[in-house]
């Protein structure tokens, strides 16, 4: 199960990075009132915050993958990687979709597909609640709740 969670977490990172790249490109090109919308902090800040979360989650993904590759125990890290990466992907795709406004629902911009994929990986192959329960038990020594 650990390799699967690490793999899914990596997919989430890719989805999130794709969404942020599309949003940044669009924000630089879309001009309203004589300036690109990316010049507005209301557009910049959600994208920047999402970028920071994605890159932080990626560090956990890489850490979990390195432990797995080394043959070390990595259950807590794999679960944390999947949890963090899925949440970061949802935040990044939402920020991207909002950046695109109504075009965020248009198939030709591909953002709506990324939103759906990010939401899927939040619950598949294991829900955030199960991930949190595992982390609470194994990392914090709390009683098993499931």
TrEMBL record:
Molecular function as annotated in GO: acyl-CoA dehydrogenase activity
Domain Acyl-CoA dehydrogenase/oxidase C-terminal, residue spans: 1-139
Keyword annotations from UniProtKB, A to Z: Flavoprotein
Protein name: Acyl-CoA dehydrogenase
Native source organism of the sequence: Frigidibacter mobilis
Source organism superkingdom: Bacteria
């Amino acid at each position: 199960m650990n390799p699967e969670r690490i793999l899914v977490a990596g997919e989430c990172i890719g989805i999130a990075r794709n969404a942020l790249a599309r949003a940044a490109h669009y924000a630089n090109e879309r001009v309203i009132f004589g300036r690109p919308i990316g010049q507005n902090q209301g557009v910049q800040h959600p994208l920047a915050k999402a970028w920071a979360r994605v890159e932080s989650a990626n560090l956990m993904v890489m850490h979990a993958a390195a432990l797995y590759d080394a043959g070390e125990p990595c259950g807590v890290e794999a679960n944390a990687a999947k949890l963090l990466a899925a949440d970061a992907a949802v935040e990044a795709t939402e920020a991207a979709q909002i950046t695109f406004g109504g075009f965020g629902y248009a198939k030709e911009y591909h953002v709506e597909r990324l939103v759906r994929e990010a939401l899927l990986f939040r619950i598949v192959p294991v829900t955030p609640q199960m991930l949190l329960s595992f982390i609470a038990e194994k990392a914090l020594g709390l009683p098993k709740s499931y």
